[in-house]
Each structure stands twice: as structure tokens, then as C-alpha cells.
Amino acid sequence: MYSAGIKYTNPKGKEQRQRLWTSVSPLGGAPKELTFNDFKDFSGSFYQQVGDDDKTVATFATKNLTATAAALKNKYPSCVDSEIVFKLALKLANENGEVAVASAIVECEAEVKETIMDGVKNLFGFGKKDSSEDGEDAKADATSSKSGKKSTKSTKSKKSSKTSKTSESASSSTESASGSTDAKDSKSTEAAEEPKEDVKKRELVHIPVEVVLEKAGIPPFTKEELTTSRDRLKAFAASDKARIQREEALNKLEAFTYKIRDLLENDDFVIKSTEKERTVLSEKASEASDWLYEGGLTAVKDEFKAKLKSLQDLVDPIQTRVKEFTARPEAIKNLKEVVGQTDKFLKDIYKQIDEHEEYLASSSAASSSTPTSSAPAESSTGDFDGLEDEDATEAKQEVEEELPAAATPPLYKREDLVEVEKLNTETKEWLKEMESKQDKLGATEDPVLLSSDIAAKQDKLSKVSMEIAMRGIRSFNSGTKKPKAKKSSKSKSKGKGKGKKFNVDDMDAEIFGEGIDQEELDKILDQIRKRQAEEDKKKEGETKEEEKTKETKEETKKKQGHDEL
Questions:
Q1: CA nearest 17: which of 2, 26, 6, 29?
Q2: CB contact at 8 A, 72 and 207
Q3: Alpha helices (H) in 161-222, listed in sequence order
Q4: DSSP reduced 3-state for 203
Q5: What is the rounded CA–CA span in Å between residue 174 and residue 156?
Q6: d(CA 172, CA 180)
Q7: Contact 42, 54 (CB under 8 A)
Q8: Where is the composition biased (Basic and acidic residues) (predicted)?
Q9: Residues 39-81: pLDDT tens digits?
């Protein structure tokens, strides 16, 4: 923001300069009003003080000042020439701080007829001083008329009190009184019929003046010019984009011709391609290269793309053979490892299930035979229950704890393993079939066993195996324990059982049997840790939200309690 003002030439030919705003003047403030006593159309400029120089920012000119002053005189003849002035109000616009004309008028004080509205205002006491004086005169007339009526009434009462002797004289006096009353009424009627003079008052009157304000410097575009310029810019942008895309297509084609030369000298590429394929590819690459340097420089983008695609269609199948030849063995090895580990895992779990079922069967048979042989002993010693030595009881419990591993229920049931067993079998059969087909193909034929397909099979089997592992961990975490015979003393059992939180670090390969090694278990547990961390984070967020809600409710209750007090 700079200091700003106005410049113009006065009627004497002297240039006037007046500062209207400082650098700290507020935008949109009260307008600055300038008064001129000359009525010839004139022009001037607005400036901003930049350093020591005055920079013109806009120009102005009056269009009908002289004509407006003359029109004001004609409309209001009572205007005195010396009292007619031209007032120009200027302000700074709120949006950009530019100078704007708030108003431009020719003004004077003239006599104006009182309108009906002015009379209404006077009636209700909103008129000016002269109207109030007229109202006071009217009140005085009304008061005098009332006093006249009172005197007439008193005279009539005196005449009626006279005796009958003077009735004739009274009647004659009454007639004369009525005659005088008629004369008064006729006079008042004549006075009312006399025309009243128009009441005039003096007030400020004005007529607006047209002032043209133009920005200095280069004039702004018209709507048509602005539309044309935008269209040209869009055309330039489209042209630049097309040029860049064409150059990119040209560069890609040229670079691919050089790449083909390198591929034709690569050993793996030569092994996986036939002589015919290499010959055709070499010829096509030479043709494309010659075309580029002869007439292709003026070709369009689509021509470059078509040439590039024709070369890529020849190169891609051979490169796929080279890629699969390198990646397939490693992919097959990884898949076979996963299948083998799954086989061992299933075999070991089925073994655990079989052993546990055998243990349950033998335990059931033993428990069914025990009551018949020990019933008399129990009845004979029942009277001395509770008298057994405590050390002997603990020793007995320790003996009971020494149970075989088969007594521990496995983490899985047979139906849990159906899906993974089926998928593992299908994967083995698929791999065996595809390997057989691939082995029958030559080095220059397109492969049927792709590394991407092998990786997809491995991912699917790993995903199902992970789900089985998570199911076993949930079973382990749900509090699955050995039979009651494994319970130790009360003091030992207090810290175990329900409520024990699962810890991933407590897991080892023995829980899952011999079918899974520690390295694979570590991979599984890493994934489990990530998932568990996400779940803990989610629960922590829910807990914080619940605590926040609880605190809010408590504060609300406290506030309600205070309000009740």
C-alpha cells in the first residue's frame, strides 16, 4: 500500500496535487470529498507515491458537468450561482485498494414547495420549525373562536331571565342576534374560500454528474480478446503435448532398434531363439532404423508406435523363454519345499491325533475296570478321609502328573486339516503334470510352466497353511489344557488356567509337531506378530474411546448434580 492522491489543473491553468490517503489508510473507509466551484468539464489523474516518484494509476474525466450545472439552475431558479458547487467523493475499494468514485453531484440550496408528505409530517409533529409556527397560529385562532361562543351563550342566558313584560323586546333582540350570527358565518365562509399561498422551504438539492474512470497503462482485454487469448494458449499447450509425445515415441523406437542389436549377440537370447526368428528380427530392425533416418523424422506419433509394436511382438516371446528358463527352477524348488513341509506337518498332526485317540480309548477302558476292584477299599477307608498325610498327597499328585505326551489334546481336529490336505495334494499333482509337459518342449518353444503360475500356487498354499496355524494358535490361547489328572496343588493352579494371555514368544516348533521346523515357524510367527500388533492397536484405540466416553458421562452427571444443588 502506497500513499495516494489526485492531480488536476485548476481554471487558472495551475496544476493541483492533493494527497488523499496514506500508506496505512484502511481499505473501504469513509469517502474523501472534494469540492469544486468551477463548472467546466475537466480531467485529472490519481497517483501512488512510490519512493520519490508519483506513479499514475488511473485517470478521470467529467462528461456533463457544465450541462448538469445549467440543468440545476433551470430546475431550481432560486439557486444562487455563488452557492452552486461540484462535490466529488472518492474511496479505496475493499477488494484491491484501487481508487473508486463514490459519488459526483452538483449541489445547491434552493426553495422547494412543501409536499403533501411534509404536511403529514407537520401534522404528527415531525415537521420543521416554520410548520410548527403555523400550527401555533392555528391553535390561537381555535382558542379565540371558543371564547366567542362562550360569550354568546352567557348573553342568551341573561336575555331569557327577563320577565314577560319585555318579551317583545327580547324577541326583537333575538332576531337581531341571529342576524349578526349569520353575518359572521358568511364572513368566515368567504375567508375560507380565499386561496392560500404556497408554503416554500429551503433545502439542499443535487443532480448527479457522470465521471469516467479508466486505469492507466495498458488497457485490459475485452471479453472477445480474452476468449481468443485463452484459445490460443490451449492450442499452444495441445501442440506442445503432441510434440513431446511424438518425440517420446520416436526415441523409444530408436532405442529399441539398438536394443535388438544387443539381444542378437546375447548367448541366452540366441539359445532360446531359432535362426529364422533372429533373421526376421534383424531385418525388421534394420528396416525400422533406415526408415527413421530417411523419411521417418516427419512421421506422426501413431506411425512410430506401430513400428515399435511390430518389433516388440517378435522380441517378447523370446525374452519370455529366457526369463522362464532362469526363474523356473528356483520357483519349482520353493514350491516343492512348501509342499514337502506341508506333508510333514499333516503327517505329524495326524500322528498326534491317532495317539491321543488311542490314549483316550485306553484310559476309558482302565477307568471302567477300576471302580469294581477298589470299591470295598474305598468304603473301608471312607471314615478316615482327610486324615492322610499332606506330603503323601503331594507325592501322589506328582505321580499323577507324569502322564504320556499322548494325554495332551492336539491343537487340531481331523476336519481342520481337510482343506489344506486337499490343496496340497492338488498342488503336487499339478506340478507333476506341468513339469512333464515342460520337459517335452524344446529350448526354442514357448514354455507351458510359468514361474508366475508356480508363485501363485505357492502363495495360495502358504495362505491356507497360515490360516491353519492361526487356528491352532487360537486353540492354544483358548485355555486348552491336559486332563484333570495333570493338576498340581492348589497354589500351583491359581496362576494357570483361564485368563492366561497368549504370548507368541512362548511358541516353539514342538507345539506343532515334527512336521514343521523352527525356521518356518519363525516366519509364521513373524506374520502372527504383525497381525497381533494390529489387533492390539485397534483394541487400544477402542479402549481409549470407551474411557473418553465414560469420562464425558461422569462429567455430565457431576454437572447435573451441581445444577440440582
A1: 6
A2: yes
A3: 167-193
A4: strand
A5: 8
A6: 13
A7: no
A8: 127-140, 182-204
A9: 889 999 999 889 888 889 899 999 999 999 999 989 988 888 8
C-alpha cell at 201: 422551504
Task: Give me the DSSP letters along 11-55.
Answer: TTS-EEEEEEE-TTPPTT-PPEEEEE---S--EEEEEEEETTEEE
CA distance 260 to 288: 11
3-state secondary structure of 91: strand
Owner of C-alpha cell 454437572? 559
Cα dihedral 5→11→13→19 (10° resolution): -10
Question: How many other CB atoms are found less than 10 A from the CB of residue 209?
Answer: 23
- What is the predicted pLDDT for the residue at 527? 64
Q: 3-class secondary structure for 312-346?
A: HHHHHHHHHHHHHHHHHHHHHHHHHHHHHHHHHHH
8 Å CB contact between 105 and 209:
yes
For 361, list phi and psi in degrees, rounded to 5: -65, -45
Largest CA distance in the chain: 171
Give the model confidence (pLDDT) of 248-275 as tens digits.
Answer: 999 999 999 999 999 999 999 999 999 9
CA-nearest of 109, 106, 81, 138 to 201 is 109
Residue 499: left if φ>0, alpha if ψ -120 to 50, beta else—which one?
Answer: left
Taking alpha carbons only, the member of 93, 90, 89 closest to residue 27 is: 93
